Amino acid sequence: MTPPDALERLRLARSEGVGPIAYRRLIRRYGSASAALDALPRLARAGGRGAAPRVPSARAVAREIEAVAARGARHLFLDTEDYPPLLALLEDAPPVLAFAGDPDLFARPAVAIVGARNASLNGRRIAAELAEALAGAGYVVVSGLARGIDAAAHEGALRAGTTLAAIAGGLDRPYPPENAALQARISAAGGVFAEAPLGTAPQARHFPRRNRIIAGLALGCVVVEAAMRSGSLITARLAIEAGREIFATPGSPRDPRCQGSNHLIRQGAHLTETLADILDHLPPSPGAGRAGRWDEAPASIAAFPEAPDADPELAADDQGRASILALLGPAPIAVDDLLRYCQLSPAVVMAALLELEIAGRVETLPGNRVALIAGPAEP
Q1: Which residues pair with 192 in a beta bridge?
Q2: Where are the beta strands (DSSP E) in 196-314?
């Protein structure tokens, strides 16, 4: 990718209203980030938004690229050969990642280990031992650099091999702060991913996005000590949706920190006590033989009418958009169900949904689903 192309891709990814799925659809529909950026104001107006979406200037994005490079890191773009191939298979794969580390690790098989932040000493020991055994067997251990199980897994992996960490904020905002030294060690001996720009402080809404990266990078996900309502179970659910294998270590039924992991076992996760319990159930790769490039996207993305030869001016009229909005609510529904009821062609419906998403009125979700965003559109 040439520097001008990278600049425009990053501008599009950082534009207001452009999420990972919308980004992918815009590139498919318009053929380039530059053309998609030109179309954003018109799409927003058609979707019912008065003001054009905020788009960072080329100068601001160039400063971001320079600042990332100054940290010894680089940007990875979704449709390039150095982007993690398993992660690229996700429907909502991040359009761009800041990465500090060794991209050659993406060619190696990876296993995620996640769990409670307030983990017991026994849980931390189990996580560290499993991670060390996996690293010794040639696997890259993936986790989220949080307190507790995550930190223990990273430490164990570093003793015998290497590890990858996905963080919720910018590369320059280690979280929690006490793991800053661990993040530096991982950057030097493995790799650290950040979807958010530099300077972004991690907030609660960022962690589920980070969790999908953890799930997407790995062939399987091991849960060690997780409460019933925890981010670790969110990671496990995302891994299941991505077709990954799920493993869980059993724990005491009297310990709330083990209720979620025990629940996963009851639901069919592989009961895990040793390295052999993991290796016996790991596939060679999800979707073996797929490189994760644009032309091999998941079926629900590849099925979108927007493609390089699609008519970029195709759109619904106001009445068509109103009929689509009337059928939507905050609960996600399948686009296929919407098509059956709205009396419009698939191409027009998909074009209208893109306009409504850029206008901030609907959200497109993995699984070819769509939902209404609560609240009025911005004037």
Answers
A1: 100, 165
A2: 220-224, 245-248, 270-271
- Asked if the model's pLDDT at residue 141 lies above 60, the reply is yes
Kindly report which listed range (9-13, 132-136, 317-321) carries the lowest average pLDDT score: 317-321
DSSP-assigned letter for residue 176: S
Rg, Å, the chain Cα set: 21
Look at residues 101, 14, 103, 27 and name the one whose alpha carbon lies nearest to residue 64.
14
**Sequence ranges of the domains in the chain:** 1-72+305-379, 100-279
| Tokens representing residue 161 in the block | 């091999």
pLDDT at residue 273, rounded to an integer: 96
Which CATH code is given to the segment(s) 1-72+305-379? 1.10.10.10
> Is 100-279 a domain of CATH 3.40.50.450?
yes
Sorting pLDDT into bands at 50, 70 and 90, what band is 305? very low
Q: CA-to-CA distance for 120 and 255, rounded, in angstroms? A: 10
Q: Residue 144: which residues within 8 A CB-CB, separation 6 or more?
A: 114, 150, 165, 166, 167, 168, 207, 210, 211, 214, 235
Sheet containing strand 245-248, edge to edge, reads: 74-77, 96-101, 191-194, 163-167, 140-143, 110-115, 220-224, 245-248, 270-271
- Is the pLDDT at 208 greater than 80? The verdict is yes
Ordered alpha helix ranges (H), 71-195: 85-88, 121-136, 149-160, 180-189
- Tokens standing for residue 195: 């979807």
With residues binned 3-state (H G I as helix, E B as strand, rest as coil), the percentages for the chain, rounded to 5, are 45, 15, 40
How much is the pTM? 0.87
Place of tokens 């609907």: 362
Nearest CA-CA partner of 70 in 191, 200, 198: 198
